[in-house]
Amino acid sequence: MPDSPDPEKWKLTDSVYAKKSTSNVNKYWRVGLILLHICLMLEAAFILALGTNLKFGPTSGIVRMFIAMFLPNAPTVTVELIIGVLVVSNPEIIAIGVVLMIVFAIGVIVSCFGNKKALKIYAFLLGILILGLIIATAITFGKQNYLSDKALLYMSENLETYKNNYHDKNQLAVATWSTVMREGSHYCCGLAGYKDFKGCTRMPAPCCSVDNQEAVESCKYTTAAAMKPLVPGCVEKIIFYVNLSEPSLAVAPVSFIVPPLIVLIVVICAALC
User: Fold this and answer.
1) Where would you find the membrane-spanning parts of this chain (predicted)?
2) Residue 175 pLDDT > 90, yes or no?
């Protein structure tokens, strides 16, 4: 006769299967987590595309589309200045995109295995990342004139390019300077006034303007110096238009933080179930 099943053996087998089932999440959790992390990787890919477009795109089409989403009614001068802020912040944007892509890729791998201990470790890592993003956002929009200082830095770095009309070197910067001096509430000239263009044979037309109207056909340095009153520099104008956009622009980083935060909650729930 065949041996009868050993009850102790069955009990041991059942306990092993029970242990395995409690150490891993079920397949539905895994599929859900994988799909969520793929969505997060698309978000990281968009941030990387944003940074790449800022670095290599002559007119930054993706960036303009991004700004239009959050500042649909913003004046043209504001849009150009915000692009300048993003250009100066480009290394940070690319770094954030790379870090997010790596972390979310780890999330996909962890989700595939579904091990609860690994999910808890990943949840801790994701929590630190989200906390870092929150702190960075708070500094960016909480520190007075942080964004406007970035805009002034961009305009200052590219003033020489504009003075020498280097369209081929930086088409975006030249277009930004032209817009800032002409658009908005009033005309302005350089950062500090006409003296920024000392040594130039030709001056930008706004430097020889009266009541926001170009007063002469060809603006020269001596003409700009003789204007009464002198056309002011653009510093105050830049600060005003950048600060004007800050409340609406703050929605952008928040919209990027919310999805990882939701996924963090789901990961914690999966790890504790």
Assistant:
1) 28-50, 62-87, 93-114, 121-142, 250-272
2) no
